[in-house]
Amino acid sequence: MAELFIKQAAEYAKTRPSYPKQLFEFIASETPCHDVVWDVGTGSGQAAVSLAGIYKTVIATDTSATQLDHAPRLPNVHYRRTPPVIPHADLPLHIAGESTVDLVTVGQALHWFDLPAFYKQAHWVLKKPHGVIAAWCYCEPEIDPAVDSVLDSFYAADSAPYWDPLRKLVEDGYRGVDFPFEAVGGAGEGDTGPFRFTAEHAMDLEGFFMYVRSWSAYQTAKERGVELLGDAVVEKFRRAWCNEEKVKVVRFPVYLRIGKVGMVKL
């Protein structure tokens, strides 16, 4: 998974949306203590930066050193490169001891994980019974009717052959992801989501193209000798955007699954 994002790490850091304040406020409201959070698959630190304003210590891990190189440095954020699956015996060394973490977060990465192995690790480090796990994804953005029409066609036809099959979990807002945790207090009984939020990012047309180049599908296509942003496609987007220097508000639907660890052993 990490290999898909290494070559476009700079584009990823510049163009991926910051997550909405309301997302973190909701997660924090369901976390009894705000001492330690483990942000898994942190990438270039999009979530870690926001979490650092709420929690005393953020342990932000990723398998890609290149992605971590682009993450903002803050005094209470500790970035660590880890193997794709951390040996259980190494969890205290890489992350934390048993039942010492208040919150585990995963932004736009859960679909890549070996879920049974990861859930056992999250269960082990989280405080019992109220430690919280929160995982979210965002789908393709909404801009305006003209651009959306071009983007929908481009996503469904041009880029479709180059997405990993796991992308379907993202398109479904993580509804199909196995999530064996208890509902938190602010949710309905037995309800772990998904709950919808909206992230906004201001972009001109070149910024939007840079965002597309950060897609894993774009990199896969490029490695197969296909340029997804060919002249014809670029021209369609230019006509829809009207003034390519105009900054538009790009809205990303964000879908959150959230639950508490409880006392049940995985």
How would you describe this structure to a colleague?
This protein is of the alpha/beta class and 266 residues long. The chain has twelve helices and seven strands. A seven-stranded mixed β-sheet has the order 3-2-1-4-5-7-6. Helix 4 links the parallel strand 1 (36-40) and strand 2. Helix 2 packs across helix 10 (205-213) and helix 8 runs antiparallel to helix 12 (231-241). It is elongated and about 55 Å long. Mean pLDDT is 90; it is low at 2-7.
* Morphology: elongated
Structural class: alpha/beta
In the sheet with the most strands, the strands line up as: 3-2-1-4-5-7-6
Rounded to the nearest angstrom, the distance between the terminal CA atoms is 25 Å
Protein name: Methyltransferase type 11 domain-containing protein
GO molecular function: S-adenosylmethionine-dependent methyltransferase activity
Pfam family, one: Methyltransf_11
